[in-house]
Amino acid sequence: MKPAYEFRSDNCGRAAPELIEALAAANTGTDLGYGGDALTASLQVRLAEVFETPVRVFPVPTGTAANALALAASATPFGAVYCAPEAHINTSEGNATGFFGSGTKLVTLAGTHGKVGPGGLEGAIAAAGVGLAHRSQPAAVNLVQATDLGAVYSIDEIAALGDVAHAHGLKVHMDGARFANALVRLGCTPAQGSWRAGVDVLSLGVTKNGGLLADAIVVFAPETASSIGFHLRRAGTVWSKMRFASAQILAYVKDDLWLRLARQANDAAARLAEQIRPLAGVTLIAPVEANELFVDMPPAMIAALQSEGFLFQRRGPRLARFVCRWDTSDDEIAALSGCMGRLAAKEAA
Question: Which of the 8 DSSP states describes residue 279?
């Protein structure tokens, strides 16, 4: 048996020990259910400190729930949510936004490396038929941070998109499945990377970055927070023993653990990119700004890597995605880059 090297997703990795310890520590005594517990109350206070503003925090079981229900509360059944074609809500969530939004429509706007641009959003709103009852009405824009091609929006890019959205009455939703990875890349505070740049509601990723069984919706816009609890309850995504979800998220942000874990994943991806970038026939199709690499290479190389025990996603005949986790080791990186180097030399011979 060949050893397996895991690069399929950061979802495939271990949970950080600190979160396991937090779950065990929460498993004492009794407390109210459905968010009436002391840990969930503490979570509201702690994330308000982290984001430097009053927030409403809703722990949820999955990132799909966070995205779909945040957007359902931000839009209307006859509304349009603008997003990149590569956005997770468009490619990978079974139209959960449309389902939980009771008909909310996704409208894709092409951009660079999975980003939505302010010019594209402005043009789409202008062509939407605002006020015409037979057209879906612009309601919200979704941006993925980091994007589904591994790029990171700058603070100025977020702000420019937010300016256009708010000028036309749209809410700004950030799918922050890899929000911590983006913060590390940008070197900014959580506030600077979210509400100060115009984000109204954030799907805060925990699971991909050392978490287990919990993500969260962080709401900066009070009018959105007023209805989101109803959407969550109707969708069956309100934790009964919510203290265990809250305990994980509290441990995630304690002493900047989330940023340390993200930095480890980003650094691993950067080291891998540096080692494979010079290889003949190997091309990175998007900037490596977080913890994902999208690599164009000959189909024979992709097949050979798979046969050698490397686990990754094949996105097309020549395209592969490699994801580094918080616990990706130097040995794993050396094994992958070494094998790719040998295969590239063979292809070039």
Answer: S
CB atoms within 10 A of CB 49: 11
Predicted TM-score (pTM) of this structure: 0.96
DSSP secondary structure of 66-78: HHHHHHHHHS-TT
Question: From start to end of 215-326, where are the E strands?
Answer: 215-219, 283-284, 292-296, 310-311, 313-314, 319-323
Looking at 36-146, which runs of residues are DSSP E strands?
56-60, 79-83, 105-108, 137-144
How far is it, in rounded angstroms, from Cα 246 to Cα 279? 45
pLDDT along the chain (349 residues), means of 10: 84 95 96 96 98 97 96 95 97 95 96 96 96 95 97 98 98 98 98 98 97 96 90 93 97 98 98 97 96 97 95 95 97 96 89
Topology annotation, domain 5-12+258-348: Aspartate Aminotransferase, domain 1 (3.90.1150)
Q: What torsion do the CA atoms of 276, 143, 96, 253 make, to the nearest 10 degrees?
A: 80
Fold of 17-257: Aspartate Aminotransferase; domain 2 (3.40.640)
Q: What CA–CA distance (Å, rounded) separates 210 from 229?
A: 26
Backbone angles phi, psi at 312, to 5 degrees: -160, 175
